[in-house]
Amino acid sequence: GFRILFGHRMLQAAKKLGVLSDLQFGARSGYMCISCVLLKRLSYDIIRQLRTTAVAFDKDAKACYDRMIPSIGVILARGVGVDKSVTTTLATTTKRMKFHIKTAFGVSPGCFHTTSTVAILGLLQGSAAVGALWALFSSLLFKVLDERFSPTEFQSPRTNRSTRRHGEAFVDDVTLWTLATKMTLLQLAPIAEAKSQVWERILWVTGGSLALPKCYYYGIQWKWTTTGQPKMCTMDDTPNVAIRLTSEPNRTRTTLIPRQEVSDGKRTLGVCLEPQGTDANDFQHKIAEGIKLR
Length: 294
What we know:
Layout: H1 2-16, H2 33-50, E1 53-60, H3 70-79, H4 84-96, E2 98-99, E3 102-103, E4 106-107, E5 112-113, H5 128-148, E6 152-155, E7 162-165, E8 167-170, E9 173-180, H6 185-205, E10 216-220, E11 222-224, E12 230-232, E13 244-247, E14 250-256, E15 259-260, H7 280-290
């Protein structure tokens, strides 16, 4: 079925061809959510060790599987060698499928479906194909970022090793990083804004959309006390930093993205990591979860 054709054969072929991005940790054999979380944790560790100015921008997409454009999914699948008969079956199924509404009162007699003027987006939410196809979609997004921006460099404290990447993703939960050692946060924020705006644009072109109310970022800059102790600047220390994004077809109206305090761990992927690394919020969250009856 689709699990074999898309979930295994297609992804294996895409990996051999170098199409799959190593930054996507979802829907892939041998990749785990905890690995994505660990990478984020280690990134914060490096920022603290090197006293680096940084912007960590966390993004979430709206119903990513239900907004995928079927024709683009077919093109991406064909591009890595999926047989035409398989992609035709997928496209025909999504095109001819009829959707009824089921409630406590029964199934609705009417339905909605794709017509000659209205297309229903999505690639079979819940099927074995949709996760694998999203891996190709997100890999395309990261490829465009590679063409438009230089990947962010994470330097080892020993200076003899470094890695370069834009960020990491687990399905549609994405963190994009922008780091600099010789720039202020006020200078770095426009670069992070431009990178995130490109991500929003290419996500929109492929059918998706950012859930801007659920997006946020951390702005990290350092200051030193009179005794030479380094501390992360609070939002009050850098009040003029702001990131705004346009969304969907509206290219004139911008939305101010919420900025989080560096001591405030906001929950993503089940954990509450924060740049300061105290884990106070995550500790309280684990206590609350431990005593809650489910």
